[in-house]
């Protein structure tokens, strides 16, 4: 199983830029970029809650579990 981050989709739906989200959440725009690309090992629940509040969404709107493809 892998976790897919759909933050870019929610930003587009809310017509919000990464910079604005970063300011509202209190983290750097670079960290937003890392989250969007899925290049993070984890996220604090506090940060996730702030992102959900800023985007008026649920954690499940941002994160999706998908089966990992097995190379055969």
From TrEMBL:
<dbReference type="Pfam" id="PF13443">
    <property type="entry name" value="HTH_26"/>
</dbReference>
<dbReference type="InterPro" id="IPR001387">
    <property type="entry name" value="Cro/C1-type_HTH"/>
</dbReference>
<feature type="domain" description="HTH cro/C1-type">
    <location>
        <begin position="10"/>
        <end position="62"/>
    </location>
</feature>
<protein>
    <submittedName>
        <fullName>Transcriptional regulator, XRE family</fullName>
    </submittedName>
</protein>
<dbReference type="GO" id="GO:0003677">
    <property type="term" value="F:DNA binding"/>
</dbReference>
<dbReference type="InterPro" id="IPR010982">
    <property type="entry name" value="Lambda_DNA-bd_dom_sf"/>
</dbReference>
């Amino acid at each position: 199983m892998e976790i897919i981050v759909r933050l870019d989709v929610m930003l587009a739906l809310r017509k919000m830029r990464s910079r604005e989200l970063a300011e509202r959440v209190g983290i750097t725009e670079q960290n937003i970029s890392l989250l969007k690309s899925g290049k993070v090992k984890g996220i604090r629940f506090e940060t996730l809650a702030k992102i959900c509040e800023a985007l008026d969404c649920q954690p499940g709107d941002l994160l999706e579990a998908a089966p990992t493809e097995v190379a055969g």
